Batch of 3 targets.
Target 1
Amino acid sequence: MLARPRIIGRVTRLSQLRLLNQTDTGTMVMNSRCGTRIVGEDSDRRCSLQYRDFRSYDSSSSDPFSPDFNNPTDSNGSIAFNITEDFLDMEGRPMLSGENPYVSGSNEGPPHTAASFADWYRTSPTLDPQGNLEIVGELLLGSLGGNVYQFSSNSFFPLDDPALAPLAWPVDPTYGETVFSNHNFGFSTEVHYFFVYQGDEVLSFSGDDDLWVFVDGFLCLDVGGLHPSQSDVMSFADPTAANRPEQDTIVANCKARLTPGDVYEVAIFHAERHTNASNFSLTLDGFVTERSTCDYTCGDGVATRFEFCDDGAGENTGEYGHCLPDCSALGPYCGDGIVDEAFEECDNGDNLGGASGCNPDCTAGPSCGDGIRRPGVGEGCDAGATTERLVPHAARRARSSSSRPGAETQATANSAQLFFLPGSKVLLQK
C-alpha cells in the first residue's frame, strides 16, 4: 500500500512564493518575532518622492497649458492662507477650500480653479498638454547631528537631472516645453514621511512657491501662494514659534490632535510655479523614525515570510513530504510533477482528478478498467482488469450485427446475453 502523500495545494505554494519574494517594507509578520529599532541618528535620510512636471507657458505655442504654472498674467505676492481645506480628501490629496479664491489682477496667488488644482498632485492618466508627467525621485536629507536633517538648495531644479530629464516635458516629441534660463520650471513635489510623535518635533521650510504640510491628514503648516522665497516653522515644541499669528493657530490646532508615542505620516506638498528662481529648504528636527525588524528560526515549526516551510524540530529532513533542512523549499511532494513510486500512483503537477487523470492526493483518477462502471463518462461496462480483453470482443459482435437487417434489435439481444458467472470475474456469453 502506498504511504499517504503530503499534499501541497497550488494556491498554498504560490502564496508562499509571493511572501518569499516580497521586500522588507517594515510590515509586521504574523507568527514571526518582530520588534522595532530606532533608525541611526547619524545616518542621512532618504525620502522617495514624486515630481509632476507641467508645461510652462509658451507664447509661441498654440497648445494649451496648465493655467497655474508660469501663467504670464499672474504676479508674485506673499503667503496666501486658506487656499486648501484643513484636511486631505479621501485620496490623500489637498482640496481647494474656496475661502481664498483666485481673482485676476488682485489675488493671483491661489490656483485658478478647483479642477486645475486637483491636477497638481494627481498623475495625468493620458498625455495631456494641460496635465502633467510623473517622475519618481529621491530627496536626500543630510544629517546635521542630534537627530536633525536638512535638504537645502537655492537652485532647486530636480528635473534638470540627466537621469530624470528624459521623463519630463522638455523632450516630449508631441508637445515639448520652453525652458527658462536652461532650467525646467513648473512642477509639483510630493513627499511622505513617517515618524513616532514625541511632542518636540520641529519642521522648518524656506522656499517658493506653495508648500503645505499635513500630519495624519490634517493641515499643520501653510505656506501656500505664488510668492518669492518665504520661511516658516511648524514647531510642536513651541507652537507659537511660527513667523505669523495665522501659522501659530494652524500649528497649535494640529498639535492638539496628536498623541505621544503614536506613529503618524507627514505629507508634504510643494509647487514651483513661476520662473526666475527656485528655492527649497527643508529641515526636520527631532523626527524619530522606527524600523521594524523580524527574526526567525528554521526548525521551530513556524513558517514565517522568510521561510517556504518549517515542519519543526527534527522534521526538516528533505525527505518525501518534508521541508528542506534550511526551510527554503520542500523535498519531493505530491504536486511536484514527478512520480515517486513509493508514495504516489501518479503526479502530473496539476492533479485535478477527472477521467484518466491524477487526483489531488496523487492516486489515479477514474479510468476504464478500474472495475467501476461510470455511465457519465461513457462506460457501458467495466469488469476491472478483464475489461480491456472482453469489451472489444462484445463491441465487435455488436458492430457486426448492426450491418444486418434488424440490427438494432439484434445488438440489444446480443448485449443482453453477456453476463457474469456468480462468484467469478469471468465474462461469459450464451
Note: DSSP finds five helices and 14 strands in the chain.
Target 2
Amino acid sequence: MKSYLSLIPISAKVRKRQNRMTMLCIIISVLLVTMIFSMADMAIRMEKTRVIKEHGNWHIMLKEPSEQQIEQIAQRTDVMTSSRYDGLNFDLSEDYTINGKSCVIVGGDNAILTEIYDNLTEGRYPTKEDEILLSNRSKELLSLKIGEAITVHTPAGDFGYTISGFGGDVTITTDADIVGAFLNWDSFQSLAKAEGFPHEIGVFLDYPLEDVVGFIENAGQNYKCSGCWKVYCNECETRKLFAKYKKCREVYRRLWKQGRDIRTLTVAS
C-alpha cells in the first residue's frame, strides 16, 4: 500500500507537466486561429475596398426606369443613395471629340461621383448647364485647367462648356487616348435630345420659329433662358408661358397620383 501511495507525487508531477503542455498548445492554437481569421478578414476588406474603388459602391442597376419609378426608389428607406446614369458614344463609333481627341460623354446626378463612386478628385460637380467635368487623364492629355472653356464637337454640332472639375473616369473607358466627359443630368438630356432629333423638329412641336432658328444658328448656346426649350427671343413672355406649363404639369401630376386615368385627364384644345 505504501508503495502505491509513493506513486502519487510522481504522477502529479508528470500530469502537471502534461497540463502545462496542453494549456500551451491550446493558447498557441487559439492565437494561430485568431491570426488566420484576422488575415482573412483583412484580405476581404482590402478586396472590397478595391472593388468599390474600381467598380463603384452599388448593388443594382435598373434599365430605363420611368420617372415615377425613379421617384419611388429615391423615397425608399432601405436605399441609401441612387443616381440616374446614361452615356453617348460608348463604342466610339460616332464623331464626338474634345480638342481633337475622341470622347465618351455621360450624364448623371451628384451621387454617382461622390457616393456611388468616389471619383471627384478636383473641383466640383457640374451644376450649370454649360459646365462639364472631365476625367483625370484628359487633364494631362489636353493640358487643361478648371475654369477653362472647351468645345465639344458632336454629330449635331459644337457645344461650348466650362470645366468645373476633374475626376475618376465614370465613362468606363480604358483607352488612355480617350477623353471622358461628365455632364449633370439635365444638361446631358438636352445634349442627348439634340443628338436624337433634327433641330427642325421644334417647329412640329410648336416651338416659336425664332427660337428654333436661334438654336440652330447658335448650336444650342447663347440662349436667354431655358425651360421647355431654349429661348432666343421674347424672353419675358416665354418665361410666363413656362410658368403656366409648370403649373399645369403639377396639377396633372397631382390628379394622376389621386387615381385619375388618362382619358379623364385628356382635354381637347
Note: The mean pLDDT is 80.
Target 3
Amino acid sequence: MVRTRELLIDVARQLFARQGVAATTMNDIAEASGKGRRTIYTYFKNKNEIYWAVVEAESKHLYARLEGLTNRDLPPEEKLLNYINIRLEAVKEAVVRNGTLRAEFFRDIWKVEKARRSIDLREVALLRSILSEGVEQGVFHIPNVTATASVLHYALRGLDVPYIRNNFSESGIDRSRLKDYILDFIRNKTIEIWTKGTRRMSCPCIMKKRVMKLLEGKVAVITGAARGIGKAIALKFASEGADIAFTDLVIDENGKATEKEIAAFGVRAKGYASNAANFEEAHKVVEEIVKDFGRIDVLVNNAGITRDGLMMRMTEQQWDMVLTVNLKSAFNFIHAVTPIMMKQKCGSIINMASVVGVSGNAGQCNYSASKAGMIGLAKSIAKELGSRGVRANAIAPGFIITDMTAALSDEVKAEWAKQIPLRRGGTPEDVANVATFLASDLSSYVTGQVIHCCGGMNM
C-alpha cells in the first residue's frame, strides 16, 4: 500500500510539473498511474490532498539527504558547510525537476509553509546536532545552540523563493554563483565568529577560504576501475570529494593498492569483487554498496574488453564475450541502480562508449556494436528516467594511451596520431575530466548526449 501511495504522489508531481495543478484532474492522475479512480480515492479525498502530499514528499526527500550527511563522520565545521551546500543544491534540483509546479508554490506559499512545518522542526534538530557537536569539541563557541540552529535554518529557508525566482539578478548576482557567495559568508563571517576565542581559532580549514569540491557529498560507483580509465576516473572523482565504490573481477593486490590511492584523498573507498556481466552479482554488489555507503549518486559503466578480428575469422565466442562484458554489464548495473536513483530523485549514469561505436572500425565489429549499444542505452535511459531527475550520457573516447593500447607498436601509434587533429593520443585523465563534468552539477541540464573525447579524431 505504501508503494502505491508513493507511485500516485510521484505521478501527480510529474503531471503538476508538466501541465500545472489547476489543469490536472483526478482522472489524469488515475490514467497516468494506471491505478484507477477508486484506488486514488482510497488514499486521497481530493486533488488538494495529493498536492500537499507532493509538497511533503519533496520536503522529506530533502530531509533524507540532510540526515545522511549529519550521520557522517566529518569535522563539525565541514559538516555544516556540506549541510548548506546540499540544501542549496536540493533547491536547484527541485526547480529543474518540477517545472511549472513551482508557480503553484508561489501562489500558495503560506499553505506550503504549513505543510512543511513538521519537516522544518526536524531540519532544525539536525542543525542543532551539528552545532552541539561543534560546541562539545571546542570548535564553536555558541551561547544558545537551540536558538542559533533555528535562526540559521529559517535564514536558509528564506532563500528558497528568491533563489527560485532569481531575484538576486536585480543586484547583479549570477544565480550560478549564489551558492558560493552564501558559503563564503558562512565560512568567513559566521564560523569565524563562532570559533573566536576557541582553541581551534588558528585551524587552516576555518581561517582560509575553503572551496567546495565538485562532487562533495556524492557516492560514485565505477565498474572495472582497478586500472586504466576506470582507475583514473575513480581518482579524479575522489579528488573532487566523492566517496568511491569500484568493482572488478577480482580485488587483488593491484585492486587493494587502487583502494588505498583513492582513500588518500580523504574519502571513503572500497573495492568489490564482482562479475559485472552477471545479472545476479551486479544486483548483489549494488545492494552491498548501498548498505556500506547509504546511497548512489553516480554510476560509471566502464567495464569492457576487446576481442578483435575480421568478420570472416571472428568466432561466436569472441562476439558473445565482448557483447556480454561491454553491453550486458551496463544493463545489469543500470537495472540495479534505477530504483535507488528514482527514489532519490537524482542521479547521473555515464556509459563509457567509444568513437568506434559512432563511426565503426574494421576488425572491431563486436567492439563497435557493443559501444554503439552503450550509446543507445544511455539515450533511452535518459528519456525513461529524466522525469525522475536521473540523467544518462555517454563518453566516446578516441585513441587513449592505456595498458590496452601500450602493446601497439610505435609505428601503429604514429599512424593513429596522424589521424588526430591534436596530434597526440589521449590520456585516461582526459577522459576522467569529461566524466567529472557529467557526474557533477555543472552538467545538471545535460542528458542523452554523447561527448567525444578524441582530440578531434571524430567530428
Note: The two ends are 52 Å apart (CA to CA).
